[in-house]
């Protein structure tokens, strides 16, 4: 009952915050279910999940700093003043996407595909355009409607009050954000705004045409993942070309820079490490764990900050019942990439296996801050609390783990047996 009252109160608070706001693009007043502060909160909430999905943050500050500075240079000319953040992630996918509230993510694979700075500026400007046009927010409002309000209320409550039902709602929002597909009209608007932002920031808008042509050429054999959420028909390239021809372009717009190529060269040098990592993942999926372990160690020899490979090493060592070694690798992951779920989760599991229950709980709570909807966190929290004799907390976490489980978790039969001991049965 207390939970329902708190959720209802948060709903009322959020409903009161729904108001008429000024659209910075048009200057017109418009009603929104998702005020800017809540849009920002959603983006921040799901940022670690998006980064984890994309194999973690690329662990090089020079690369991150370059993309951050380029992104902020373009963001400064946009009308929406938000706490923009820009991240390069390890994924080899050719992709970029934004989260509500101004979190922009580009992949290592995307930068390796591009040939000059104005092409990267085009991608960043396009994603900033989606944020400035509130495309993510509008689609969430349209897709989720009133349900969204209740889920935002759950975000406000957070922490220990997060119920099984709320966790499922959060999982639904995360899945929606990571798979948003934009309409043709939204893409047209983002193209037009992106061109405007590029020019105002001093970049040659023809970089957008070059990028689209590059993606189009890849479409037949190796279609970029970016195209799955940003459709690119032939007419779109024509339309962007016509838009540019109608623009009054100032002289000396930036086409390229030595810094772009220096950053790309860094990515080229670490590419063999990530190729070894991908081979290791394939071997792991086939159950060839020892061969996979060798590949992950090879990946780290080629690039000693490859935290994605380190996480797999920790996981395999746990499977081999070598928790002390696993703990060492997991702690390295948390130091290199605080956003990534796996470092904190695997650290928590290793500490549990070592009987260090309080420390394990602390690590798993950190994991929960990254991705609150990962079922394994709650299973091991339950195991820790059960070991400490705190049975009510153990059952509470076991129930959450069961609700979030996908059905193929290796610990699921054990979880059901433990619940059955306490008279709780699920069919």
Give a description of the structure.
This protein is mainly alpha-helical. The protein has 2 domains: 244 residues, no CATH class; 152 residues, Serine Threonine Protein Phosphatase 5, Tetratricopeptide repeat, CATH 1.25.40. 67% of the residues lie in helices and 5% in strands. The protein is built from 21 helices and 5 strands. Strands 3-5-4 form a 3-stranded mixed beta sheet. A hairpin with a 6-residue loop joins strand 1 and strand 2. Helix 15 packs antiparallel against helix 16.
Topology, pairings included?
Blueprint: H1 2-17, E1 19-22, E2 29-32, H2 36-53, H3 61-75, E3 85-89, E4 96-99, E5 103-107, H4 108-113, H5 117-132, H6 135-144, H7 146-157, H8 164-177, H9 184-200, H10 206-218, H11 226-229, H12 234-245, H13 258-285, H14 289-302, H15 307-319, H16 323-336, H17 341-353, H18 357-370, H19 375-387, H20 391-404, H21 412-421
Helix pairs in contact: 1-7, 3-5, 5-9, 5-10, 7-8, 8-20, 9-12, 10-12, 13-14, 14-15, 15-16, 15-17, 16-17, 17-18, 17-19, 18-19, 19-20, 20-21
């Amino acid at each position: 009952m207390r939970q329902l009252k708190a959720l209802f109160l948060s709903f009322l608070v959020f409903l009161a915050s729904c108001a008429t706001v000024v659209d910075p693009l048009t200057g017109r007043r418009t009603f929104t279910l998702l005020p800017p502060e809540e849009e920002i909160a959603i983006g921040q909430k799901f940022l670690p999940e998006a980064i984890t999905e994309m194999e973690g943050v690329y662990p090089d500050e020079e690369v991150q700093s370059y993309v951050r500075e380029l992104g902020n240079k373009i963001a400064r000319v946009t009308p929406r003043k938000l706490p923009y953040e820009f991240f390069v992630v390890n994924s080899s996918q050719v992709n970029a996407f934004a989260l509500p509230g101004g979190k922009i993510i580009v992949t290592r694979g995307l930068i390796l595909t591009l040939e000059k700075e104005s092409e990267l500026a085009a991608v960043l400007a396009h994603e900033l355009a989606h944020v400035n046009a509130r495309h993510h927010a509008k689609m969430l409002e349209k897709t989720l409607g009133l349900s969204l309000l209740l889920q935002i209320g759950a975000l406000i409550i957070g922490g220990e009050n997060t119920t099984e039902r709320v966790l499922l709602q959060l999982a639904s929002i995360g899945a929606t954000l990571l798979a948003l597909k934009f309409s043709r009209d939204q893409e047209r608007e983002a193209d037009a705004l992106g061109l405007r932002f590029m020019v105002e920031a001093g970049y040659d808008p023809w970089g957008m045409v070059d990028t689209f042509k590059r993606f189009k050429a890849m479409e037949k054999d190796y279609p970029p993942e970016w195209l799955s959420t940003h459709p690119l028909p032939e007419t779109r390239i024509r339309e962007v070309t016509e838009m540019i021809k109608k623009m009054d372009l100032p002289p000396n717009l930036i086409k390229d820079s030595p810094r772009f190529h220096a950053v790309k060269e860094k990515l080229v040098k670490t590419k063999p490490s990530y190729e070894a990592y991908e081979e290791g993942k394939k071997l792991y999926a086939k159950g060839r764990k020892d061969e996979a372990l060798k590949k992950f160690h090879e990946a780290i020899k080629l690039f000693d900050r490859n935290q994605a490979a380190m996480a797999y090493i920790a996981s395999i060592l746990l499977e081999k019942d070598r928790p002390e070694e696993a703990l060492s690798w997991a702690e390295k992951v948390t130091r290199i990439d605080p956003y990534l779920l796996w470092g904190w989760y695997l650290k928590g599991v290793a500490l549990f296996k070592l009987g260090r229950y309080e420390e394990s709980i602390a690590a798993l709570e950190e994991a929960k801050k990254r991705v609150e909807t990962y079922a394994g966190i709650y299973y091991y929290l339950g195991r820790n609390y059960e070991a400490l004799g705190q049975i009510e907390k153990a059952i509470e976490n076991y129930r959450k783990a069961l609700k979030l489980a996908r059905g193929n978790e290796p610990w699921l039969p054990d979880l059901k047996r433990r619940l059955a001991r306490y008279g709780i049965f699920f069919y």
